[in-house]
Amino acid sequence: MNHARGWVRLFSGKRLDLLDPTPFDWEDRDLAIGLARTYRWGGHSAWALPLSVAQHSLLVLALRRLWFPNAGDARAELRELLHDADEGLLGFDCISVVKPFLGEAFRALTTKLENAVALRYGLAPWRSEEWKAHKRADRVAAASEAVHVVGWTRKEVRHTLRIPYEPLALDPLAEIYGAHPWEPWEPALAAERFLAELERLNHRQTKAHPD
C-alpha cells in the first residue's frame, strides 16, 4: 500500500515532503523565498502588494529587540524570526480563527513542519514567560498591520478582530531598512532581508553554541 506524499520542489532543487518533512529537505534560501511568497491577511492589502510572512517575521523580531535591548540571545532571536517558518514551507498562512475548522489533520501537518524547523535550527521550546512576550509582539504586529497595511480602523481591530493591543504609530522596520513605513516589500526584497537576518543569527548561534 502506497503512503500519501505531499512533494514540493524548492528553488534550490531540493524536494520536501510536506507530510513527512525532515530537517535536511530545504536550504535557508528556500525558506526565505517561501516566506516572502506567503502572504498574511488572506493576501489582502490596501497597498499594491500584500504583506509577506517574511516581513511580518522581521517586524516581530524588531519588536523583541526594542522591548528587550539587552537580551542579545541569538538562539532566542532565531526562534522569534522563525516562529512562522512552517508557513513558508507550506506556502500557506491560514487566518488564525479559521485554523480550528481545518481540523486535527492540518494541525498534525503543521506540527511536523514546526518540529523539522526546530531540529534544523536548534530551537529550544518556549518557556511560559517567553511565550507571553512572543505573543504580545506577534499581536502588536498584527494590530499594526491590520491598520496600516490592510485598512482596518483602530476600533475594528479591537472590537471586530478582537486584538487587545494598540497599533504602533511608527514602523520599526522603516528605520532599520530605510523603507516607506508599513509598505509591503517586493517578494525578492523580503526574501533577501529575511535570509540576511537568518544567516546572521545562525552564525551568532554557532559561535555561542559550537556543539
Description:
The chain is an all-alpha fold and 211 residues long. It has a single domain, classed as Hypothetical protein af1432. Helices cover 56% and strands 3% of the residues. It contains nine helices and two strands; from the N terminus they run E-E-H-H-H-H-H-H-H-H-H. The protein has helices at 28-36, 53-67, 74-81, 85-90, 99-121, 128-150, 154-159, 172-177, 187-208, and strands spanning 7-9, 15-17. Helix 1 (28-36) packs across helix 9. It is globular. The mean pLDDT is 94.
Distance between the amino and carboxyl termini: 41 Å
How many strands in all? 2
Give, in order, the helices and strands. EEHHHHHHHHH
Write the CATH homologous superfamily.
Hypothetical protein af1432
Helical residue percent?
55-70%
Strand content range = under 5%
> Over all CA atoms, what is the radius of gyration?
17 Å
Average pLDDT across residues?
94
What global shape is seen?
Answer: globular
Task: Please identify the structural class as seen in this structure.
Answer: mainly alpha
The overall number of domains is: 1
| Total helical elements | 9
Task: Name the CATH class.
Answer: Mainly Alpha
Main sheet properties: 2 strands, antiparallel
Low-confidence stretches: none
CATH fold-level topology: Hypothetical protein af1432
Q: So, CATH architecture?
A: Orthogonal Bundle
Strand order of the largest sheet: 1-2
